[in-house]
Amino acid sequence: MKTKLDIAKNWLPRYTGAKIDEFGDYMLLTNFQNYVSKFADKFDCEVKGEGRPMQTATNSAGLSIINFGIGSANAATIMDLLIARQPKGVLFLGKCGGLKDSTEIGHFILPIAAIRGEGTSNDYFPPEVPALPSFKLHKFVSDRIIEKGLEYRTGVIYTTNRRLWEWDDDFKNYLRRLGAIGIDMETATLFIVGYANQIARGALLLVSDRPMFPEGVKTEESDQTVTQNFVDLHLQIGIEAMTEIGGKGEPIKHFTY
Questions:
Q1: 96 and 175 in contact (C-beta within 8 Å)?
Q2: 253 lies in a domain?
Q3: Through-space distance between the first and last CA atoms of the chain, rounded to whole angstroms
Q4: What span, in angstroms and rounded, lies between the C-alpha atoms of 126 and 69?
Q5: Contact in structure between 17 and 52 (CB atoms under 8 Å)
Q6: Residue 254 covered by a domain
Q7: What is the CATH number of the domain that holds 38?
């Protein structure tokens, strides 16, 4: 295995338990096993990769979902491995912390960009390269949200490698100065590595906590409430948006980089 593509073709099946040709042209990415389980139950399809680093399922329409785990290193890994399949579009269904008063739990965010605070993306491009989604993919997601009579927020997401920072007042003051609307651990990495690999990508984030306030820090109980009230809708919007793109057969990328 001398090339990046050689390695990816070997490792994608090894990490997921699925053959390359079993993946669809369009994909949902997530950090959570229950998203994959719900997807598989909805479409009566098999979950592969149990006991492996990543789990996946693909429905009869050619839409796949992959749970790649948590953090920017895992986000970079899956976006590199996906060159073995070269999907036509990838949408990340993640959760984030709301950083502004206008972002309440249960709100959806379509980020217009992400701040590269994680460091992982520096292995792909210099820091001055912005982490951006594919606009047309986000347009499909936006249309599905509006059709359901729902609101969503746009803004910049701050992506960090720090999992435990909610106690750090200096870091919170730094976030306030940046003006980011939310914080997570994957979005910037997914955008940058997707750009590096010429994979059309987007993110639909669910606000799951409000970590700038002590009473808003995520707990086991609060996370279960978010799951019960909002996860099914989050997943459904992602399924509908990516299925619509596939059904229309419209190219998401219009430029060659």
A1: no
A2: no
A3: 26
A4: 25
A5: yes
A6: no
A7: 3.40.50.1580
Report which DSSP code applies to 149: T
Contact between 100 and 149 under an 8 Å Cβ cutoff? The reply is no
Alpha carbon distance 151, 164 (integer Å): 30
Look at the alpha carbons of 27, 29, 35, 40 in this order and tell me if their dihedral is positive or negative.
positive
CA distance 71 to 49: 19
Residue range 36-77, pLDDT digits in tens: 999 999 999 999 999 999 999 999 999 999 999 999 999 999
Give pLDDT tens digits for 146-177. Answer: 999 998 999 999 999 999 999 999 999 999 99
Residue 239, SS3? Answer: helix
Helix, strand or coil for residue 68? coil
Angstrom distances, CA of residue 253 to CA of 63, 83, 136, 249: 18, 16, 8, 12
What are the b/e assignments for 202-220, b being 16+ CB within 10 Å? bbbbbbbbbbbeeeeebee
CA dist 210 and 175 (Å) reads 13
Tokens 């651990």 sit on residue: 185
Q: What is the pLDDT of residues 195-232, one digit of tens each?
A: 999 999 999 999 999 999 888 888 888 888 988 999 99
Tokens coding 95: 């959760």
SS3 159: strand
Q: Are 241 and 144 in contact (CB under 8 A)?
A: yes
Return the ∠ at Cα 21 (arms to 15 and 23), rounded to 5°: 65
- If one counts the domains in the chain, the total is 1
Phi, psi dihedral angles at 148 (to 5 degrees): -85, 0
Tell me which residue range forms the domain holding 208.
Answer: 4-248
Residue 255 has pLDDT above 50, yes or no: no
Report pLDDT for 116. Answer: 98
